[in-house]
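Re: the 244-residue chain
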Amino acid sequence: MSGSIGEPIASAYGPAKRNRHVELLRDYLATRSLRKDDRLPPERQLCLDLSISRGSLRHALSVLEASGEVWRHVGKGTFAGKSGTVASHEWVDVSNPMEVTEARLYIEPKLASLAAIRGTGKEFQLMRRLTEQGGAASDVRRSQELNDQLHRVIAAAARNPLLIAAFEMIYQARAQTNWGKLRPLHTALSELQVHWSEHGQIVEAICSRDAPEAEELMAVHITHVQDEIDAKSRALGRLPRRAA
């Protein structure tokens, strides 16, 4: 099949159209001047107002949920802003830092790979800006905030609702887990600067649309985080050495 034939098909059904649906929903919500926790119209009404399918709407809602612009409550609807609640799943209550990081290692490299394929120019600009701000941060707490924002933007750019949902569960567990002295805020700023150097390499691979490189670099980055937690845990006598 020639490129001239394939291009309209990709435009009609590929990531570009899904991106337009996300921006369409975002613009629609902006015109309604919704306050935090205001309920959005029902999905049926949103589909009619936006002239999009239910599947396209749910994908767009998943992207906005991953970026903290809306939140959903089963049986009650979708609401503006980021949910102030934390996950109440039993597995969250019993998770530990190593388990959270292991879960990230399975999910986030694939998100980085998909972001390289499906991300938009606007998202790439935001990733680069967050990376620059993070590398220049002189405060550990601010550095960590920018770190979380960057990872969320990468997840949203992947445009895979199931993986984004898994990412959100992991980050809810990460927020609720008792980290004690292993919490990133106890990490020296010099260590975080090393992380930002790795972030820069990941972002450049994503912006170059080098999916395999982005996936590999994200895996290396999270493995380094995992190794740091492991070393601190053993130093504090909290966890045994991981098996080789």
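The chain is about 70% helix and 5% strand.
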